[in-house]
Write a structure and sequence with these properties.
The protein is mostly helical. Helix content is 70%, strand content 0%. Helix 1 packs antiparallel against helix 2, helix 2 packs parallel to helix 5 and helix 3 runs antiparallel to helix 5. The relative contact order is 0.18.
């Protein structure tokens, strides 16, 4: 295995670890009262370079390893787009369930997140979860595939 592949694997794993931490450790459950503010922002700032490295190396890996057969490349592209559509549906369901568990949107006075806005200690998991992790990497795969198709 090359050094680039090992570095990509490490970036990918650390990036996943960052998403996991934000979703499971730094997001407050809807039934818990939190007055500490959004500590997840600190983890997001800490892991942002790791996320960016993971996306950049995923792009480079896809662009470099993409097969030279146009039909196979288009098949991979269509499959990635189809999975992205399914992930968006999953993200929408996840968002709906979380908003129901919180009692409504930030504009609803009965909601736990009333006046907090959409980015707070209760909603970190809307933006940093397994669905968004996979979706972000698939979007990078799609852009890398399109970039490789331009050169075929």
């Amino acid at each position: 295995m090359s050094k680039k592949t090992i570095f990509w694997i490490l970036c990918f794993l650390f990036s996943f670890f960052g998403f996991y931490l934000i979703e499971h450790v730094f997001t407050v459950n809807p039934h818990v009262v939190s007055g500490n503010g959004n500590l997840g922002i600190l983890v997001i700032f800490l892991f942002t370079p790791v996320f960016i490295c993971s996306w950049v190396y995923t792009f480079k890996l896809v662009k470099g390893k993409m097969v030279k057969n146009r039909k196979t490349t288009i098949g991979i592209l269509l499959f990635a787009i189809a999975v992205c559509v399914l992930l968006v549906i999953g993200i929408n369901d996840y968002k709906s369930e979380l908003i129901m568990a919180l009692g409504g949107t930030p504009g609803n006075p009965e909601s736990r997140i009333y006046r907090f806005g959409w980015f707070n200690q209760y909603t970190n998991s809307l933006y940093f979860n397994v669905y968004t992790f996979i979706l972000s990497h698939l979007l990078i795969v799609i852009s890398g595939t399109i970039s490789a198709l331009r050169k075929i």
